[in-house]
Design a protein that fits this description.
The protein has 403 residues and is an alpha+beta fold. Helices cover 26% and strands 24% of the residues. Helix 5 (190-200) crosses helix 12 (353-371). The longest helix has 19 residues, at 121-139.
């Protein structure tokens, strides 16, 4: 082995210099127009793709233990020898979208005999290209993946300030792309702040925060993360505080440092989805009425905890209720909207961050099911977790197809 290993950052330039049609898309390296032989002994062309992760402005080496490896994906039929028998590249059918709008059909797992892997991406992709292309050349000596064509790399304007390598490593970028749109979170107390934390880590385009309260010490003990004493003493609006915290990671978080009422609730019109995290029944009723009439899907989150004097302990539940254009007839059964139906948790001012977190996660996971990110076998529209019973109950199912 050379004492001067190849810089992994130079692999892309080297591939381009040699005339390969290369493209970087969603943290993947794509090499287009690779000739191969089909089972019908015909030469066709397809695209090879592999992970191309960046960390600290450096390309992660294959087999570095940071998520990249020696495997690649293939968009065409399974490559064959000139006589139509299949090459041994590791047969693993992968009929799915690897990236948004980029379907693949196979995943290959092959490396040079006696080697642990590849030092950089140039040797990785050329290893597979050579194995596949040589068979096509036996049929037509003039075919070559080095077409000299230049592909315009279009990464797109990501909402994140740095790549989402977690989704790339897990191979779920195409699934994560389902989490899009303009989202509103009404109420930035404990539950709302945990919802924000989860939504901020998805590729949704905009997250609008509505709350007229000031961030104080009681919020610090209920919200995600650790607020400093300076944060508490700043007395800034909750929405401004959370924008400042999360704009370190992403763009598109918008502060609305005021409460919604009958005069400005129309501002929710045009959102793709709304999370309601309010603690007053009359405010909730006003918001729910507007969203139902506007056909805007939303989830209402709430808690009901109380102190049991006999045991000196807390019991109760947290709830997440999904309402859509196709189903809203369950609203009065699950969502408290009378002025005296304020959640007991807020009446007693009990600080319970873990229940806030569970409440938020129920809401976010239900939203992700609604978006098609998670499977949803039972399609319940209400989820309720009882802390003293440690049980999760599912509410009504939709009996008709969603519009």
């Amino acid at each position: 082995m050379s004492s001067n290993p190849v810089d992994p950052n130079t692999a892309l330039d080297r591939l381009r210099d040699e005339g390969f049609e290369v493209e970087i898309r969603d943290q993947h390296l794509l090499v287009h127009s690779i000739p191969y032989v089909t089972a019908q002994k015909v030469v066709r062309y397809a695209t090879l793709a592999c992970l191309y992760l960046r960390q600290d402005d450096q390309v992660v080496r294959p087999n570095s233990g940071h998520g990249d490896n020696h495997q690649v994906w293939w968009t065409g039929e399974y490559p064959c020898y000139p006589n139509g028998t299949v090459l041994d590249l590791g047969i693993d059918p992968q009929q799915r979208d690897l990236l948004p709008g980029f379907p693949v059909r196979h995943q290959f797992s092959n490396k040079p005999f006696g080697a642990d892997g590849f030092p950089e991406h140039y040797s990785k992709v050329t290893h597979y290209i050579r194995l596949i292309q040589n068979q096509a050349k036996a049929i037509d000596k003039d075919v070559d993946a080095r077409t000299g064509r230049v592909v315009a790399t279009q990464e797109g304007e990501s909402v994140f300030h740095y790549p989402d390598t977690a989704s790339a490593r897990a191979e779920i970028l195409a699934i994560s792309a389902k989490l899009t749109g303009r989202i509103a979170i009404v109420g930035l107390g404990g539950t709302g702040s945990y919802i924000l934390d989860q939504i901020a880590k998805t590729p949704v385009g905009e997250i609008h925060l509505f709350d007229g309260d000031i961030f104080g010490s009681h919020n610090a003990f209920r919200a995600l993360g650790a607020a400093s004493l300076d944060d508490v003493n700043a007395k800034e609006p909750k929405t401004e505080y959370f924008v400042r915290k999360y704009e370190l990671m992403r763009r598109g978080i918008v502060s609305h440092a005021y409460f919604l009422d009958t005069h400005n609730v129309v501002e929710l019109t045009g959102f793709d989805f709304v999370f309601l995290c309010v603690d007053k029944g009359d405010a909730r009723a006003m918001l729910v009425k507007h969203l139902v009439e506007s056909g805007i899907p939303f989830i209402d989150a709430g808690m009901n905890l109380k102190l049991v004097a006999a045991t000196n302990s807390l019991i109760g539940t947290c709830r997440a209720t999904l309402v859509t254009k196709a189903k809203s007839d369950h609203v009065s059964d699950y969502i408290p909207m009378d002025p005296d139906d304020e959640d007991v948790l807020y009446q007693e001012n009990i600080q319970v961050a873990d229940m806030n977190a569970i409440n938020a996660l129920l809401a976010v996971m239900k939203w992700k099911q609604h978006q098609g990110f998670y499977g949803d076998d039972f399609k319940p529209y209400n989820l309720s977790f009882g802390v003293n019973l440690m049980s999760l109950n599912r509410g009504p199912r939709l009996q008709v197809e969603e519009e």
